[in-house]
Specification:
Blueprint (H helix, E strand, L loop, with lengths): L22 H11 L1 H4 L7 H8 L10 E4 L5 H9 L6 E5 L2 H10 L4 E4 L5 H5 L9 E4 L8 H13 L7 E5 L14 E4 L11 E6 L2
Length: about 200
């Protein structure tokens, strides 16, 4: 098992977060550079992050998988909910966001990689079955078959009945439901977010 302090070091000089730069500006810069990977133009609000974290139970044993944490608002909400940073496994594509996450949450395991190839990216890193997966990825940019594959990979690495939690700005589910295979429930709309959003929690029956 690898922890945050023993991640593979890149050969080149690591990127460092720019000081005194607001998270909203970081997100805009990342979105302009790669909109298909970033998806959002602003970090999740505390209200949305709290709603997402509420679907996971810190009393249950196991790690938490977070996909696309960005600057860490949902990570913060998970810690406030009662998850120790050491239980958090964060997969982030943007190397500058990774550097920022390591500074803000030094106990967490931060992996600079592709969350869409979840099983390959996590490969034997988890210490046990996960409590659940929480995602801020722009899923609508991926084909439906790829969304289903990723969600099922998350289910395979999690306790039976553990949720895959995803936020969306859309009125339709970002992960199409499959009777008997992928079921979902949605939250009320979170108005205190820009733009307003809602949360879906998917489970394998």
């Amino acid at each position: 098992m690898l922890h945050s302090h023993d991640q593979r070091r890149p050969l080149q000089k690591p990127l460092l977060p720019k000081p005194n730069l607001k998270d909203e500006v970081r997100f805009l810069q990342s979105w302009f550079q790669n909109p298909l990977k970033t998806g959002a133009v602003a970090p999740s609000s505390p209200a949305l992050a709290k709603m997402m974290a509420s679907y996971l139970d810190p009393k249950q044993d196991g790690p938490v998988i977070e996909l696309g944490p960005g600057t860490g608002p949902v990570t913060k909400a998970l810690i406030q909910r009662g998850f120790a940073p050491e239980r958090l496994y964060l997969i982030e594509y943007n190397p500058e966001f990774c550097a920022l996450l390591r500074l803000r949450y030094p106990g967490a395991t931060v992996i600079n990689g592709d969350a869409y190839t979840l099983a390959k990216t996590l490969a034997d890193r988890l210490p046990g079955k996960a409590v659940g997966t929480i995602s801020s990825l722009p899923l609508f940019t991926m084909p439906e078959t790829e969304r289903h594959r990723m969600v099922n990979e998350a289910f395979d690495m999690s306790h039976a009945g553990a949720p895959f939690v995803q936020f969306t700005y859309a009125v339709v589910t970002p992960v199409p439901l499959v009777p008997g295979a992928i079921e979902g429930e949605r939250s009320p709309r979170v108005w205190r977010n820009i733009p307003p959003a809602r949360v879906w929690a998917y489970r394998r029956p």
